[in-house]
Amino acid sequence: MSTEQLKLKIEPSTREILPGRGFYQIDEDTLYVQIAQFDLEHRYFSQIKSEVVRLDLDRHGRLLFVEVSKPRTEWPAQKNMPKHGKLTSAEVKWLDFRTEINDPEIITNKDASEICLVFADKRDKKTIQLADSVVISISAENCLNRIWVSDIEDDNGGHKMAKYRKLCRGENESD
């Protein structure tokens, strides 16, 4: 089953911006984007996926993790990568669960430190800062248009991502 648009529920924000960061796993040629921390409040429940992108959601429909399995050597770099609009904060919940979607268009900058996943090419109604380095834009119908991930770090074997997770939990690297 494939869906054309990913419907979202947008509510006023009740919390601080979540931690979020992209780590390109060199050994796997895969981008992992951690949003929030794995704890009792943020546990995997379901996913939305295409052949190259997977969005992991918690039981409330909040985005926890993004995986892009297309190697970055195949991400088309653009001199003028699409920019997002003025950022707002909001609580975002995905309404589609266990859904298969078409592959989004993938765009990156020259050094692949940023990526834009284009799910729809509609006019943006709102641009929301979902996490520190993760931004989404939505249409007037509250459907997902794009996901931007900035500050992508090269990683090997998940070592930098593991350190980041410890940091988010308030642990020292040596813990």
Structural write-up:
The chain has one helix at 159-168, and strands at residues 2-3, 8-11, 20-25, 30-35, 46-49, 53-57, 63-68, 87-88, 91-94, 99-101, 105-108, 115-118, 126-131, 134-138, 144-149, 153-155. With 175 residues, the protein is mainly beta. The strands form 3 sheets. Strands 1-10-5-6-7-4-3-16 form an 8-stranded mixed β-sheet, with helices on one face.
Descriptive labels:
1 helix, mainly beta, six-stranded mixed beta sheet, eight-stranded mixed beta sheet, single chain, 6% helix, 175 residues
Briefly summarize what is shown.
By secondary structure, the protein is mostly beta strands. The protein contains one helix and 16 strands. It is globular, with a radius of gyration of 15 Å.
Largest β-sheet summary: 8 strands, mixed
Report the average pLDDT across residues: 89
N-to-C CA distance: 44 Å
Number of helices: 1
Shape: globular
Going by helix content, strand content and strand pairing, the class is: mainly beta
* Rg over CA atoms: 15 Å
- The arrangement of helices and strands along the chain is EEEEEEEEEEEEEEEEH
Proportion of beta-strand residues? 35-45%
- Low-pLDDT stretches are none
Write the layout of secondary structure elements.
Blueprint: E1 2-3, E2 8-11, E3 20-25, E4 30-35, E5 46-49, E6 53-57, E7 63-68, E8 87-88, E9 91-94, E10 99-101, E11 105-108, E12 115-118, E13 126-131, E14 134-138, E15 144-149, E16 153-155, H1 159-168
Parallel strand pairs: 1-10, 3-16, 5-10, 8-13
Antiparallel strand pairs: 2-9, 3-4, 4-7, 5-6, 6-7, 11-12, 12-15, 13-14, 14-15
